[in-house]
Specification:
Blueprint (H helix, E strand, L loop, with lengths): L19 H21 L2 E2 L5 E3 H8 L4 H6 L2 E3 L6 E4 L4 H10 L8 E10 L11 E10 L4 H18 L5 E6 L3 H17 L6 H9 L13 H5 L10 H16 L4 E3 L11 E8 L8 E7 L3 H4 L7 E7 H11 L11 E5 L2 H16 L4 E3 L10 H11 L3 E5 L1 H5 L2 E6 L6 E5 L3 H13 L1
Parallel strand pairs: 1-5, 7-8, 12-13, 12-14
Antiparallel strand pairs: 2-4, 3-4, 5-6, 6-11, 7-9, 9-10, 10-11, 14-15, 15-16
The protein binds adenosine-5'-triphosphate and magnesium ion.
C-alpha cells in the first residue's frame, strides 16, 4: 500500500506567527507599556475581537479606506447578524464605554492592546492581522490632555531608545470650518479632476478631505497645492492648536506642522498627530491619533470630548530592532533538574515544584520518548537553557537522600546537599552567583 503524504497547512496570508525568539521582544515591549500606563493612570479595557459591523461604520465613517475596502465583514451563519473583525480599537472602546456607562462619574483614561484586522496588501510593516496598543482619554476637552497623551508617547519612544521618530501635528478644526474648507477643496479638485485617481474622483463627491490622505504618489503634487484647512480655522480652533503647540514646547517636544495630515478615520476634530520615521521604508508611521470630540455622541452616547492615539506594535518592534534596543537576553530558567526516571523522577518532580513555589524558575528534564536519557545528554540541555545551576538526582543520590548541585556558569563546581536542604542550598547558590 502506498503511503499518502499528508499536506502541511499554512497560516493565512498577511497574518503572522510570533515565534518564541520574537515573543521575548513582545513581552519586553508589553512590560514597558504596562509600566507606562500605570505611570499615567490609564486603565486597560478589553473589548471583543468581533463587533457588529455598524460599530465601525458609524465609528470610523463609511467613506474611509478601512470601511470601504479593508474590513473582514461576514454574516453570522446562525443568526444572520452582520459582524466585523475589529480593524481598530477606538470605535469598540467607545461602544463599550457607552454601553457600560463608564463616564457616569466623570472622565476616564483608558488603554487597550490586541490584534486588529485589515484586508490590505501584505508588505513590510503592513499586515492583515497586526497589533495595536492605544490610549483613549474620554471626557476631557482641554489642550492639556492632547499634550498629556503626546508626552506619554514621547516617553515611550525615549524609553525604547527608538531612533529617528518625529512628531507631525495638524488641526482639523470643527465641522463648520471643515465645511467651508470642503467647498474650496471641491472647487480646487474639480478644476484638477484629471489629476485624480478613480478613488479620489469618487471621494470628491462624498468625502473630499480624504483625498488629502491618499497614498497615491502620482497625486502628491495636486494634493500639495490644495487649499489648507489651517487657513479656514476660526479663533477658538486656532487657540486650541496654539495652546497645544505651546505646551509641547514647554515639554521640549519638537513637532512639525503638517497641513496635509488628515488621518485615515473620519471621527477626528481639532488636534491630529502622527509619529513618523524614515527608518521603516514606506510604512513609516508608527503611531497616530488625535481629538475625536464628536464620536461619543455619534455612537449613541451623551456627548463627551475625547482624544487618543494608537501605535502599530509590529512597526515599533521593527524600529526597536533597527535602533538596537533589544532587551538583554534572559535565560529561560534558573535551575535545570536532571534525573534517571522512576523514583528519581518522582523526587525530581517534587523538588521542582518546591523550587517553583519559592519563585525559582525551574525546568525539569523530560525525555521525548517518555523514558530517560544519559546524564551527558541531559547536561547539554541544561547548559543550553541558560540555567545558573543544574540539580542532579540520580539513583546514587536518591539512595543517600541527596541531590548534587552543579554550577553551570562558573568553574562547574559540584557539591552534594541533603534533599531536605535543597531549597535553602539553591537560594544560597543563586544569591552568591548574583553577587
Ligand atoms: P497607514 O497610513 O500606514 O495605513 P493608518 O493611518 O491606516 O496607517 P491607523 O488606523 O492610524 O493607521 O493605526 C495606527 C497605527 O497602526 C499606524 O500608525 C500603524 O503603525 C499601525 N497600522 C495600521 N495599519 C497597519 C497594518 N495593516 N499593519 C501593521 N500596522 C498597521
Ligand atoms: Mg491604513
Amino acid at each position: 500500500m502506498s503511503e499518502q503524504k499528508i499536506q502541511k497547512l499554512a497560516g493565512v496570508r498577511g497574518m503572522n506567527d510570533v515565534l518564541p525568539t520574537d515573543a521575548k521582544q513582545w513581552l519586553y515591549l508589553e512590560k514597558i507599556l504596562h509600566d507606562l500606563t500605570r505611570a499615567y493612570g490609564y486603565e486597560f479595557i478589553k473589548t471583543p475581537i468581533v463587533e457588529a459591523t455598524e460599530v465601525f461604520q458609524r465609528g470610523i465613517g463609511v467613506v474611509t479606506d478601512i470601511v470601504e475596502k479593508e474590513m473582514y465583514s461576514f454574516e453570522d451563519r446562525l443568526n444572520g447578524e452582520q459582524l466585523t473583525l475589529r480593524p481598530e480599537g477606538t470605535a469598540a472602546v467607545v461602544r463599550a464605554v457607552i454601553e457600560h456607562n463608564l463616564l457616569y462619574d466623570g472622565p476616564k483614561r483608558l488603554c487597550y492592546m490586541g490584534p486588529m484586522f485589515r484586508h490590505e496588501r501584505p508588505q513590510r510593516g503592513r499586515y492583515r492581522q497586526f497589533h495595536q496598543f492605544g490610549v483613549e482619554a474620554l471626557g476631557f476637552s482641554g489642550p492639556d490632555i492632547d499634550v498629556e497623551i503626546i508626552v506619554m508617547g514621547q516617553r515611550l519612544w525615549d524609553e525604547l531608545g527608538l531612533r529617528g521618530v518625529h512628531l507631525e501635528i495638524n488641526s482639523l478644526g470643527q465641522a463648520v470650518e471643515r465645511a467651508a474648507h470642503r467647498e474650496a477643496l471641491v472647487s480646487y479638485f474639480t478644476a484638477n479632476a484629471a489629476a485624480l485617481d478613480e478613488d479620489s474622483q469618487r471621494r470628491l463627491l462624498t468625502n473630499p478631505l480624504r483625498i488629502l490622505d491618499s497614498k497615491n504618489s502620482a497625486m502628491q503634487e495636486v494634493i500639495e497645492k490644495a487649499p489648507r484647512l489651517l487657513d479656514f480655522l476660526g479663533a477658538e480652533s486656532l487657540q486650541h492648536f496654539t495652546a497645544v503647540q505651546a505646551l509641547l514646547k514647554t515639554h521640549n517636544i519638537p513637532c512639525k506642522i503638517n497641513p496635509r495630515l488628515v488621518r485615515g478615520l473620519d471621527y477626528y476634530n481639532l488636534t491630529v498627530f502622527e509619529w513618523v520615521t524614515t527608518e521603516l521604508g514606506a510604512q513609516g508611521t508608527i503611531a497616530g491619533g488625535g481629538r475625536y470630540d464628536p464620536l461619543v455622541e455619534r455612537m449613541g452616547g451623551k456627548a463627551a470630548p475625547a482624544c487618543g492615539w494608537a501605535m502599530g506594535i509590529e512597526r515599533v518592534l521593527e524600529l526597536m530592532a533597527i535602533s538596537g534596543s533589544v532587551p538583554e537576553a534572559e535565560s529561560v530558567c534558573d535551575i535545570y533538574i536532571l534525573h534517571q526516571g522512576g523514583e528519581t523522577l518522582t523526587a525530581a518532580f517534587i523538588a521542582a515544584e518546591q523550587l517553583r513555589s519559592a519563585g525559582i524558575d525551574t525546568i525539569l528534564f523530560c525525555a521525548p520518548d517518555g523514558q530517560t536519557a544519559s546524564f551527558k545528554s541531559q547536561m547539554k540541555k541544561a547548559d543550553a537553557s541558560g540555567a545558573a545551576f543544574a540539580v542532579i538526582i540520580g539513583p546514587d543520590e536518591l539512595a543517600l537522600n541527596e541531590a548534587q548541585i552543579k554550577d553551570l556558569r562558573g568553574q562547574g563546581e559540584q557539591h552534594a546537599v541533603p534533599l531536605t536542604k535543597l531549597l535553602d542550598a539553591i537560594i544560597d547558590s543563586l544569591v552568591s552567583a548574583s553577587e
